[in-house]
Amino acid sequence: AQSVTQPDIHITVSEGASLELRCNYSYGATPYLFWYVQSPGQGLQLLLKYFSGDTLVQGIKGFEAEFKRSQSSFNLRKPSVHWSDAAEYFCAVGGDNWGKLQFGAGTQVVVTP
Amino acid sequence: EADIYQTPRYLVIGTGKKITLECSQTMGHDKMYWYQQDPGMELHLIHYSYGVNSTEKGDLSSESTVSRIRTEHFPLTLESARPSHTSQYLCASSMSSYNEQFFGPGTRLTVL
């Protein structure tokens, strides 16, 4: 069965500092991997995705993620966070014929001045 | 830009009422999904559809039902709402099984 683990429930980071959010997955076949961001009271917005090819993927808002098959990880990074990056971040894995996604529990990011 | 809409955005109703949450997309996507999300928690798939007249139950058991009569429309219905149905409901669509899902803004349902 597929599963996604986001070990950090909550992260506090200073504005301008770097950010890394961890994501580990378990999936029997070649996974499709996604990072979504959710602001309070809103739906989810896609930050980036990995299907194949280059293992370092660039996304919107200055985010990037690296797929490491040997570690079953897909960590999200940003070199310098902005106050507007405060939100909930979800990692997801998919790849079945129905397009179903398995989401992690999310990481809440708080940005301090 | 993804065009997927949900109405209402917020709904407060009493126990026993029948409700329908609307979801529409203008992208012509075949795949559509309903998720349930409690505050600060992960998303759980409750229904999905891979085309007109096809619907399936998701991984999380739900008392709700769905229909897919038109490609663009995927409403969710609760015949008799209960306080345990209080949650946020998110609708999503996808071009195919191997593409990302686009999400609507969600409906926050409160059943008193």
What characteristics describe this protein?
heterodimer, A: 113 residues, mainly beta, 6-stranded mixed sheet, 12 strands, globular, B: 112 residues, 7-stranded mixed sheet, 4-stranded antiparallel sheet, 0% helix
Summarize the entry for a quick read.
The complex is a heterodimer of chains A (113) and B (112). With 113 residues, chain A is mainly beta.
Low-pLDDT stretches of chain B are none
- N-to-C SSE series of chain B? EEEEEEEEEEE
Output the radius of gyration of chain A: 14 Å
Contiguous helical run count of chain B: 0
How large is the radius of gyration of chain B? Answer: 13 Å
Number of strands of chain B: 11
Major sheet of chain A, described briefly? 6 strands, mixed
β-sheet strand percentage of chain A = over 45%
Q: Strand percentage of chain B, roughly?
A: over 45%
Structure description:
The complex is a heterodimer of chains A (113) and B (112). Chain A has 113 residues and is mainly beta. Chain A has strands spanning 3-5, 10-14, 19-21, 24-26, 32-38, 44-50, 56-58, 64-68, 73-78, 87-94, 101-103, 107-112. In chain A, strand 7 (56-58) and strand 8 (64-68) form a beta hairpin. The model of chain A has no long low-confidence stretch (mean pLDDT 93). Chain B is 0% helix and 49% strand. Chain B has strands at 4-7, 10-13, 19-25, 31-37, 43-51, 54-57, 65-66, 76-78, 87-94, 102-103, 107-111. With 112 residues, chain B is mainly beta. Chain B is globular and about 40 Å long. Chain B has no helices and eleven strands. In chain B, a hairpin with a 2-residue loop joins strand 5 (43-51) and strand 6 (54-57). In chain B, strands 2, 4, 5, 6, 9, 10 and 11 form a seven-stranded mixed beta sheet that branches. Chains A and B meet through strand 5, strand 6 and strand 10 of A and strand 5, strand 9 and strand 10 of B.
